[in-house]
Amino acid sequence: xxxxxxxxxxxxxxxxxxxxxxxxxxxxxxxxxxxxxxxxxxxxxxxxxxxxxxxxxxxxxxxxxxxxxxxxxxxxxxxxxxxxxxxxxxxxxxxxxxxxxxxxxxxxxxxxxxxxxxxxxxxxxxxxxxxxxxxxxxxxxxxxxxxxxxxxxxxxxxxxxxxxxxxxxxxxxxxxxxxxxxxxxxxxxxxxxxxxxxxxxxxxxxxxxxxxx
Length: 213
Description:
This protein has about 210 residues and is α+β, with helices and mostly antiparallel strands. Helices cover about 40% and strands about 10% of the residues. Strands 1-2-5-3-4 form a five-stranded mixed beta sheet, covered by helices on one side. Strand 3, helix 8 and strand 4 form a beta-alpha-beta unit.
């Protein structure tokens, strides 16, 4: 919520009214240890997208967020030794972000696959998933130093009706109405040394992450 609240165009919305409507304390947004139920979290993302008049806008809002918007969780990925280490760090430390779902990572002969679970029975989750994909794709763009990383995205949601800069740029790399929510990374990239890695710095980042976990 904090990342969404302070980034345009969602920053212009009345977040106190949103909190009242969805029955959560607005103070939790700026509390580093604030929490809300997962159903509230999902509902607010749907509400904000509706208020902004676009069912694809979450892709763009979160894809434009700079490193640091998600604090230590960003740096666990950006500063990892390799892409494989980066994906494994997200899986390992996901509980510091939420206890409502896990993030999965596995490899086959051709790909490393980072997969988010389908959150059945908790409400509509399309917009929150679009946000997570937009945010994660931006981190791949940064470490691979390109706006067109060679990743493939699958989403177990219908395609949005509205246009999106993110979807236009990624084109056929994004597939909707699939059986899972995931980003697939070609196997040849998994051992790639990441440009912002420095072993001593990453040890400090991991220590901080373990403390927060």
